[in-house]
Backbone:
């Protein structure tokens, strides 16, 4: 987004609105009988004693606890990267992070930015920087961008599209160090392969870690998160965990997984509260039955993915980076069934269709026929 385009600015953005919920300013909590305590960090959790302690020494007793601590950003200083504490090296996790980055973009007109990382943060921030007339270079070690989701063919389109926008992409290496000027502002990024890139803004997006240290040794853990059931209840019956920190049964695939995404954060929170309220009335609800969902918007692109990205793949449609309006997709198939679907530039109806297919997992006669049918395979359901 261009900073002059009048887009909504934090903190006027409310995460639940994205799924049809209400805006939640401070008054909303008061009107709904919820005590909202801000600027208070919990530094100790005694689950046996049902007590939380804040940094200021205040204690909070509870009957039921819902852990929604999310993730912390992984910083290059965690690994002792030389010069990683220089000024104007940014991470995106909190509102303050976004505000500081916006200020830097405004202060350094026509600046040079290096983006470290080729995932969500890397791709979306690269687009924003370019739209604000900043020179952009992306650096990541993987052979293609978004490797946790994209196939090589999908990535080739986005890398080509970004290159056509004037974004320089350097793959197969990492930022090994930074140099700063006399004021401590970053001025160069030193790559592991020996190259040195000029930069007065650096944005690092190399992942996050679930914030579960407060509960270590008090709850069962699995796959890096707090183990829960299909109602997000943990090994302690009075404690629930939702969002990034929860490792839960993914019913659709009979697997235990942890999912880092806003859609799951919203829906897992809703499930936990529904389960809690039902148990108070001696009732029960259906187990969580989540369909994995990811999406992104950058430049004039907009993609959605549903399901599981495992097995064989086919790509359909026009995926030329030079196309005036590219529209294409990918299906993932496993054991003769479609298990995942991706669509770039789909209409709302088409996106609903690929979601429906990903959940239904219909059988496939052959990959050739699936490729020939393309989007029609989903929309005919």
Residues:
């Amino acid at each position: 987004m261009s900073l002059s385009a009048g887009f909504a600015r934090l903190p006027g953005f409310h995460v639940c609105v994205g799924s049809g919920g209400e805006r939640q300013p401070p008054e909303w909590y008061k009107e709904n009988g919820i005590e909202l305590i801000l600027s208070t960090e919990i530094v100790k959790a005694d689950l046996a004693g049902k007590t939380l302690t804040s940094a200021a020494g205040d204690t909070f007793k509870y009957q039921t606890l819902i852990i929604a601590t999310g993730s912390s950003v992984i910083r290059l200083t965690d690994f002792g990267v030389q010069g990683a504490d220089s000024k104007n090296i940014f991470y995106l996790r909190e509102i303050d992070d976004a505000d500081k980055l916006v200020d830097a973009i405004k202060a350094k007109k026509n600046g040079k930015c290096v983006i470290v990382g080729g995932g969500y943060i890397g791709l979306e921030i690269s687009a924003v920087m370019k739209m604000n007339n900043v020179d952009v270079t992306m650096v990541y070690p993987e052979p293609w961008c978004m490797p946790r989701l994209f196939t090589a063919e999908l990535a080739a389109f986005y890398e080509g599209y970004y290159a056509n926008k004037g974004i320089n992409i350097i793959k197969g290496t990492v930022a090994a160090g930074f140099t700063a000027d006399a004021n401590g502002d970053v001025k160069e990024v030193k790559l592991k392969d020996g190259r040195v890139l000029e930069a007065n803004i650096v944005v690092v997006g190399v992942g996050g870690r679930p914030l579960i240290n407060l509960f270590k040794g008090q709850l069962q853990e699995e796959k890096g998160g707090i183990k829960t059931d299909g109602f997000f209840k943990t090994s302690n019956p009075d404690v629930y965990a939702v969002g990034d920190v929860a490792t839960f049964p993914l019913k659709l695939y009979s697997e235990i997984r942890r999912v880092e995404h806003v859609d799951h954060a919203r829906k897992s929170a809703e499930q936990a509260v529904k389960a809690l309220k039902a148990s108070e009335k001696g009732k029960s609800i259906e187990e969580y039955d989540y369909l994995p969902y990811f999406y992104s918007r950058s430049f004039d692109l907009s993609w959605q993915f549903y399901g599981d990205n495992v097995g064989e793949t086919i790509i359909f449609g026009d995926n030329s980076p030079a196309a005036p309006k590219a529209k294409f997709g990918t299906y993932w198939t496993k054991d003769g069934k479609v298990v995942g679907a991706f669509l770039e530039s789909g209409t709302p109806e088409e996106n609903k269709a690929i979601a429906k297919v990903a959940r239904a997992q219909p059988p496939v006669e052959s990959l050739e026929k699936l490729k020939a049918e393309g989007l029609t395979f989903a929309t005919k359901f």
In short: The CA atoms of residues 95 and 284 lie 37 Å apart. The two ends are 35 Å apart (CA to CA).
